[in-house]
Amino acid sequence: MVHLNITDRAGVEHVVEAQTGLSLMEAIREAGFDDLMALCGGCCSCATCHVYVDDGDGAFKAVSEDENDLLDSSDHRQANSRLSCQLVLTAAADGLRATIAPED
Amino acid sequence: MAQEDIFYDVLIVGGGHAGAQLAITLRQMGFAGSVAIVGAEHVPPYERPPLSKEYLSGAKSFERILIRPESFWGERNVAMILGERVMSVDPGKKRIVTASGRSMGYGSLVWAAGGSPRRLACAGSDASNIHVVRNLADVDAIAAALPQVTHVTIVGGGYIGLEAAAVMRKMDKAVTLLEVGPRLLGRVTGEALSAFVDEFHRAKGVDVRTATGLASFETQDGRVVAAVLDNGQRIATDMVIAGIGIVPEVGALQDAGASVANGVMVDACCRTSLPDIFAIGDCAASPNPWADGAHIRVESVQNANDQAKIVANLLMDVDKPVDAMPWFWSNQYDLKLQSVGLSMGHDLQLVRGDRATASFSILYLREGRLIAVDTVNRVKDYVQARALVAAGARLDASLAVDPDIALKDVVAAAA
After folding, report:
1. What is the ipTM of this complex?
2. For residue B4, what are the CA distances in angstroms to B13, B88, B108?
3. Choosing among B53, B329, B374, B389, which should be mutated to test the A contact, i.e. which has the most A CBs within 10 A?
4. CATH number for domain B7-116+248-315, candidates 3.50.50.60, 3.40.50.300, 3.20.20.70, 3.40.630.30
């Protein structure tokens, strides 16, 4: 289990517990947030699970070419943008801070 | 008799992507009325695309493909009435009756019942080892049978059949794929992609037979032991998977007097011809701006979600256009296929990149404007095509076919 600090679209930060081995997308969904669409279910085919990793990006693999291209489809891309389905949680993700990006 | 006390302001029939998304969106928008989902399956809403892939292969548990955790629905005050089929609709009294005889009233009824897999009709089609891929139970049945299976015959060369073929090859099953039409994906993509997919599956060991129909099944003890083709050939097999499309689930609405053709006819706001009854998702035939306004059914997650949003906006009285540009994906082996727009009605097809590299795109144009793009392992093209298709951009064809020039940079100068 790791603890994550997730800020929803209303700007409210929530502390959620998540199982390692899941993706951050799954953890956010599992925690009951309803603003993450994640339409493709996590196979890196859309960009509807877009988050900003405010702190703790080092816990994850670098952005792949496909993820980078998909992030380009968002009007809200920032330097810390990631697709949360591509971020697999390990113990290193404990304490992560992330914000759900605005809907495109 | 009718229990007049059960009433939902919004009664959603169908717990698939469309129905689930409608309930989620309504609550997200602050809808204060009562909401129920009546679903034919016994499980809460889950994602269908991974069923035949990550779920069947065991890479993801069922919990991991739930659209929302089971507790979510109760927390959002969405009643889940599972394992129930709606058998009749009374649009005058605004009530429905389920298969078990439960009667419920509604303020608005949203029909999101999807479809059931089209069944094979040739002799032997009632055999027990003929499977379909639509629901959890379908895929569980395939998974349970697989250990005893060495050869799978897949009927249908559309996305469902091809994805099944890819998964079966990964599991080391021998696979024969039958497609009655002249090419794979014939209904949805251009020739270049069909030819590529055909070659790719063959290279992975699938025995692809296009322009080949099924004459009958040879059965023993109620099980298929061989498929007999229309050319007389006999293929010994111990599992059949039929992926030949769906029949929209619309019977009760049709009986109630709704206008039905290939699916429930709806307007641009997903209203059926009956008052306060809407239809969304796979079962709804809506006037599609990406198909010149023709009433078509679009079977995709994108369409299910966008139509759910359209109805949510309507019920919440929010005047906000929903950009429902069609997009789609399919994963087969290590191929990432992505599409945007609808290619029907194109008058020009351009192949961008070399098929031999397994990274190329097909651009579909109509009167010089880009209307759709299929990409194979070219996410960058897919992303850039979204903006171009949305804008109906005119492309410079001679530049567009050069894969080294970014797609966004091949827009033609204004005529």
Report:
1. 0.94
2. 19, 16, 16
3. B329
4. 3.50.50.60
